[in-house]
Protein backbone atom coordinates (compact mmCIF):
# COMPACT_ATOMS: atom_id res chain seq x y z
CA UNK A 1 0.00 0.00 0.00
CA UNK A 2 2.74 2.40 1.03
CA UNK A 3 4.78 1.33 -2.00
CA UNK A 4 1.91 2.16 -4.31
CA UNK A 5 1.48 5.49 -2.57
CA UNK A 6 5.18 6.26 -3.05
CA UNK A 7 5.19 5.29 -6.73
CA UNK A 8 2.10 7.43 -7.25
CA UNK A 9 3.88 10.34 -5.62
CA UNK A 10 6.93 9.82 -7.84
CA UNK A 11 4.77 9.74 -10.94
CA UNK A 12 2.99 12.88 -9.87
CA UNK A 13 6.33 14.62 -9.29
CA UNK A 14 7.52 13.54 -12.75
CA UNK A 15 4.30 14.65 -14.44
CA UNK A 16 4.31 17.96 -12.65
CA UNK A 17 7.97 18.57 -13.49
CA UNK A 18 7.37 18.05 -17.19
CA UNK A 19 4.29 20.27 -16.96
CA UNK A 20 6.36 23.08 -15.39
CA UNK A 21 9.12 22.61 -17.98
CA UNK A 22 6.57 22.84 -20.79
CA UNK A 23 4.18 25.50 -19.53
CA UNK A 24 6.35 27.58 -17.17
CA UNK A 25 7.75 29.85 -19.86
CA UNK A 26 4.38 30.53 -21.43
CA UNK A 27 2.73 31.19 -18.05
CA UNK A 28 5.54 33.56 -17.11
CA UNK A 29 5.12 35.41 -20.40
CA UNK A 30 1.38 35.77 -19.72
CA UNK A 31 2.02 36.92 -16.16
CA UNK A 32 4.64 39.44 -17.24
CA UNK A 33 2.21 40.93 -19.75
CA UNK A 34 -0.46 41.09 -17.04
CA UNK A 35 1.71 42.83 -14.48
CA UNK A 36 3.12 45.18 -17.13
CA UNK A 37 6.69 44.54 -16.04
CA UNK A 38 9.78 44.50 -18.22
CA UNK A 39 10.54 41.00 -19.59
CA UNK A 40 13.92 40.88 -17.86
CA UNK A 41 12.78 42.30 -14.51
CA UNK A 42 9.52 40.72 -13.42
CA UNK A 43 9.39 39.85 -9.70
CA UNK A 44 5.60 40.25 -9.46
CA UNK A 45 5.02 38.01 -12.46
CA UNK A 46 7.36 35.36 -11.04
CA UNK A 47 5.49 35.41 -7.75
CA UNK A 48 2.16 35.06 -9.57
CA UNK A 49 3.42 32.11 -11.63
CA UNK A 50 4.89 30.37 -8.58
CA UNK A 51 1.57 30.75 -6.76
CA UNK A 52 -0.43 29.51 -9.74
CA UNK A 53 1.86 26.50 -10.17
CA UNK A 54 1.73 25.72 -6.45
CA UNK A 55 -2.07 25.67 -6.59
CA UNK A 56 -1.97 23.46 -9.65
CA UNK A 57 0.40 21.09 -7.81
CA UNK A 58 -1.91 21.01 -4.79
CA UNK A 59 -4.92 20.07 -6.92
CA UNK A 60 -2.98 17.78 -9.29
CA UNK A 61 -4.70 14.58 -8.08
CA UNK A 62 -8.16 16.12 -8.39
CA UNK A 63 -7.85 17.43 -11.94
CA UNK A 64 -9.92 14.53 -13.34
CA UNK A 65 -8.91 15.02 -16.94
CA UNK A 66 -9.01 18.80 -16.80
CA UNK A 67 -6.09 20.55 -18.49
CA UNK A 68 -3.61 21.64 -15.78
CA UNK A 69 -2.59 24.58 -17.97
CA UNK A 70 -6.18 25.85 -17.96
CA UNK A 71 -6.30 25.49 -14.21
CA UNK A 72 -3.03 27.40 -13.70
CA UNK A 73 -4.03 30.13 -16.16
CA UNK A 74 -7.42 30.54 -14.50
CA UNK A 75 -5.81 30.91 -11.11
CA UNK A 76 -3.28 33.38 -12.53
CA UNK A 77 -6.00 35.54 -14.08
CA UNK A 78 -8.36 35.60 -11.10
CA UNK A 79 -5.53 36.20 -8.67
CA UNK A 80 -4.28 39.10 -10.79
CA UNK A 81 -7.83 40.45 -11.13
CA UNK A 82 -8.20 40.55 -7.36
CA UNK A 83 -4.80 42.20 -6.98
CA UNK A 84 -5.53 44.71 -9.74
CA UNK A 85 -8.76 45.66 -8.03
CA UNK A 86 -7.12 46.22 -4.65
CA UNK A 87 -4.26 48.26 -6.05
CA UNK A 88 -6.51 50.27 -8.32
CA UNK A 89 -7.12 53.16 -5.97
CA UNK A 90 -4.09 54.98 -4.58
CA UNK A 91 -0.55 53.65 -5.03
CA UNK A 92 -0.67 54.26 -8.77
CA UNK A 93 3.08 54.23 -9.06
CA UNK A 94 3.21 50.67 -7.76
CA UNK A 95 1.07 49.33 -10.57
CA UNK A 96 2.30 51.66 -13.29
CA UNK A 97 3.62 49.48 -16.11
CA UNK A 98 7.31 49.51 -16.98
CA UNK A 99 8.01 51.39 -20.26
CA UNK A 100 9.72 48.27 -21.66
CA UNK A 101 6.49 46.29 -21.38
CA UNK A 102 4.59 45.68 -24.60
CA UNK A 103 1.44 46.83 -22.78
CA UNK A 104 2.96 49.88 -21.10
CA UNK A 105 0.08 52.20 -22.06
CA UNK A 106 -2.75 50.04 -20.70
CA UNK A 107 -4.50 49.91 -17.37
CA UNK A 108 -4.66 46.63 -15.41
CA UNK A 109 -8.15 45.70 -16.60
CA UNK A 110 -7.29 46.41 -20.23
CA UNK A 111 -4.14 44.29 -19.92
CA UNK A 112 -6.08 41.47 -18.32
CA UNK A 113 -8.77 41.34 -21.00
CA UNK A 114 -6.37 41.83 -23.91
CA UNK A 115 -3.98 39.10 -22.71
CA UNK A 116 -6.75 36.59 -22.04
CA UNK A 117 -8.58 37.32 -25.30
CA UNK A 118 -5.74 37.66 -27.78
CA UNK A 119 -2.54 36.28 -26.25
CA UNK A 120 -4.22 33.25 -24.66
CA UNK A 121 -6.98 33.05 -27.27
CA UNK A 122 -9.86 32.52 -24.82
CA UNK A 123 -13.36 33.26 -26.15
CA UNK A 124 -15.20 36.41 -25.17
CA UNK A 125 -17.91 34.46 -23.38
CA UNK A 126 -15.41 32.47 -21.29
CA UNK A 127 -13.45 35.59 -20.36
CA UNK A 128 -16.64 37.29 -19.24
CA UNK A 129 -17.56 34.25 -17.13
CA UNK A 130 -14.05 33.97 -15.68
CA UNK A 131 -13.87 37.63 -14.66
CA UNK A 132 -17.55 38.07 -13.76
CA UNK A 133 -17.82 40.93 -16.26
CA UNK A 134 -20.56 41.60 -18.83
CA UNK A 135 -19.64 40.37 -22.30
CA UNK A 136 -20.10 43.85 -23.81
CA UNK A 137 -17.57 45.24 -21.38
CA UNK A 138 -15.05 42.55 -22.33
CA UNK A 139 -15.64 43.39 -25.99
CA UNK A 140 -15.25 47.14 -25.42
CA UNK A 141 -12.15 46.78 -23.22
CA UNK A 142 -10.51 44.46 -25.75
CA UNK A 143 -11.22 46.85 -28.64
CA UNK A 144 -9.93 49.85 -26.74
CA UNK A 145 -6.82 47.99 -25.57
CA UNK A 146 -6.05 46.76 -29.11
CA UNK A 147 -6.34 50.30 -30.45
CA UNK A 148 -4.05 51.66 -27.70
CA UNK A 149 -1.43 48.98 -28.30
CA UNK A 150 -1.38 49.61 -32.06
CA UNK A 151 -1.38 53.41 -31.74
CA UNK A 152 0.35 54.25 -28.46
CA UNK A 153 -0.54 57.72 -27.23
CA UNK A 154 1.82 60.35 -25.79
CA UNK A 155 5.03 58.58 -26.73
CA UNK A 156 6.95 61.79 -26.15
CA UNK A 157 5.25 62.56 -22.85
CA UNK A 158 6.26 59.35 -21.12
CA UNK A 159 9.85 60.27 -20.15
CA UNK A 160 8.47 63.39 -18.43
CA UNK A 161 5.93 61.36 -16.46
CA UNK A 162 8.67 58.92 -15.52
CA UNK A 163 10.95 61.72 -14.36
CA UNK A 164 8.11 62.95 -12.17
CA UNK A 165 7.79 59.53 -10.54
CA UNK A 166 11.53 59.23 -10.04
CA UNK A 167 11.69 62.66 -8.42
CA UNK A 168 8.86 62.07 -5.97
CA UNK B 1 -7.10 47.42 -41.14
CA UNK B 2 -9.94 45.13 -40.25
CA UNK B 3 -10.58 43.57 -36.89
CA UNK B 4 -8.68 40.33 -37.53
CA UNK B 5 -5.60 42.15 -38.79
CA UNK B 6 -5.63 44.48 -35.80
CA UNK B 7 -5.89 41.53 -33.41
CA UNK B 8 -3.05 39.72 -35.18
CA UNK B 9 -0.87 42.83 -34.99
CA UNK B 10 -1.56 43.25 -31.26
CA UNK B 11 -0.76 39.57 -30.73
CA UNK B 12 2.57 40.00 -32.53
CA UNK B 13 3.46 42.98 -30.33
CA UNK B 14 2.72 40.93 -27.20
CA UNK B 15 4.76 37.96 -28.41
CA UNK B 16 7.83 40.04 -29.22
CA UNK B 17 10.03 39.58 -26.14
CA UNK B 18 9.83 36.35 -24.17
CA UNK B 19 10.83 36.42 -20.51
CA UNK B 20 13.16 33.64 -19.38
CA UNK B 21 11.75 31.36 -16.66
CA UNK B 22 13.84 31.63 -13.50
CA UNK B 23 15.76 28.57 -12.31
CA UNK B 24 14.18 26.80 -9.37
CA UNK B 25 10.62 27.57 -10.45
CA UNK B 26 9.67 23.89 -10.19
CA UNK B 27 11.21 23.52 -6.71
CA UNK B 28 9.50 26.67 -5.43
CA UNK B 29 6.13 25.56 -6.83
CA UNK B 30 6.45 22.09 -5.28
CA UNK B 31 7.49 23.59 -1.94
CA UNK B 32 4.54 25.98 -1.82
CA UNK B 33 2.16 23.37 -3.24
CA UNK B 34 3.13 20.81 -0.60
CA UNK B 35 2.63 23.42 2.09
CA UNK B 36 -0.84 24.14 0.71
CA UNK B 37 -1.67 20.42 0.70
CA UNK B 38 -0.43 19.98 4.26
CA UNK B 39 -2.46 22.96 5.42
CA UNK B 40 -5.57 21.63 3.69
CA UNK B 41 -5.10 18.22 5.32
CA UNK B 42 -4.68 19.84 8.73
CA UNK B 43 -7.82 21.94 8.32
CA UNK B 44 -9.80 18.89 7.21
CA UNK B 45 -8.53 16.92 10.21
CA UNK B 46 -9.53 19.68 12.64
CA UNK B 47 -13.00 19.91 11.11
CA UNK B 48 -13.52 16.13 11.40
CA UNK B 49 -12.29 16.25 14.99
CA UNK B 50 -14.75 19.06 15.79
CA UNK B 51 -17.55 17.06 14.22
CA UNK B 52 -16.64 13.96 16.24
CA UNK B 53 -16.49 15.96 19.48
CA UNK B 54 -19.88 17.49 18.66
CA UNK B 55 -21.44 14.08 18.09
CA UNK B 56 -20.04 12.72 21.37
CA UNK B 57 -21.20 15.76 23.35
CA UNK B 58 -24.66 15.53 21.84
CA UNK B 59 -24.91 11.79 22.56
CA UNK B 60 -23.87 12.24 26.18
CA UNK B 61 -26.30 15.12 26.65
CA UNK B 62 -29.15 13.18 25.03
CA UNK B 63 -28.51 10.09 27.15
CA UNK B 64 -28.38 12.03 30.42
CA UNK B 65 -31.29 14.41 29.83
CA UNK B 66 -33.43 12.02 27.74
CA UNK B 67 -35.53 14.79 26.16
CA UNK B 68 -37.79 12.22 24.49
CA UNK B 69 -39.06 10.88 27.83
CA UNK B 70 -42.33 12.50 28.88
CA UNK B 71 -42.10 14.39 32.14
CA UNK B 72 -44.63 13.20 34.75
CA UNK B 73 -47.47 15.69 35.05
CA UNK B 74 -47.29 17.45 38.34
CA UNK B 75 -48.99 20.67 37.41
CA UNK B 76 -52.65 19.70 37.36
CA UNK B 77 -54.40 20.79 40.56
CA UNK B 78 -56.37 18.18 42.41
CA UNK B 79 -60.13 18.59 42.07
CA UNK B 80 -61.43 17.98 45.56
CA UNK B 81 -63.95 20.58 46.72
CA UNK B 82 -66.41 21.93 44.20
UniProtKB/TrEMBL annotation, chain A:
It comes from the Bacteria. It holds the Pfam family Sigma70_r4. Residues 102-145 form the RNA polymerase sigma-70 region domain. Gene3D superfamilies: Winged helix-like DNA-binding domain superfamily/Winged helix DNA-binding domain (1.10.10.10). This is Sigma factor-like helix-turn-helix DNA-binding protein.
TrEMBL record, chain B:
It comes from the Bacteria. Keywords: Membrane, Transmembrane, Transmembrane helix. The chain crosses the membrane at residues 46-64. This is Uncharacterized protein.
